[in-house]
Amino acid sequence: MGVLSEFKAFAVKGNVVDMAVGIIIGAAFGKIVSSFVGDVVMPPIGLLVGGVNFADLAVTLKAAAGDAPAVVLAYGKFIQSIIDFIIIAFAIFMGVKVINRLKREEAVAPAEPPVPTQEEVLLTEIRDLLKAQNDKS
């Protein structure tokens, strides 16, 4: 039973839950970016370079023979994946940049000086009294 309780304590920690939410949102964001690149960005680029559909760009290394499928090097899909990655990386970079700026602004805010404890107040009074006695002598 100890292992189950340890796992439960681990699983409900804030960091694990935050990480799970981040992974789910990241996967959904990846699909959105893939659709954006494949359906919005690449068609105009393909049109600009002579009506090329990047998803269809490939080199056949070995033609299909009987039941064996063709061996194809699909470099167009790879180009789309690189563009997906660049967009996602840039979005993450911008998000981290905003978070870091907010942390810096939070850190710059001046902290109020700590209120002296009762013990410190008493020690200060004793120091002042001793100093006053030494000055009289």
TrEMBL record:
Pfam families: MscL
Keyword Methyltransferase recorded: no
Function text: Channel that opens in response to stretch forces in the membrane lipid bilayer. May participate in the regulation of osmotic pressure changes within the cell.
Compartments where found: Cell inner membrane; Cell membrane
Coiled coil: none
InterPro entries: Mechanosensitive_channel_CS, MS_channel, MSC/AndL, MscL_channel
Subunit relationships: Homopentamer.
Entry's transmembrane regions: 20-38, 45-66, 78-96
Membrane topology: Multi-pass membrane protein
Family: Belongs to the MscL family.
HAMAP family referenced in this protein's UniProt entry, alphabetically: MscL
The keyword Cell membrane appears for this protein: yes
Protein name in UniProt: Large-conductance mechanosensitive channel
Keywords from the named record: Cell inner membrane, Cell membrane, Ion channel, Ion transport, Membrane, Transmembrane, Transmembrane helix, Transport
Superkingdom classification of source: Bacteria
Organism from which the protein derives: Pseudomonas sessilinigenes
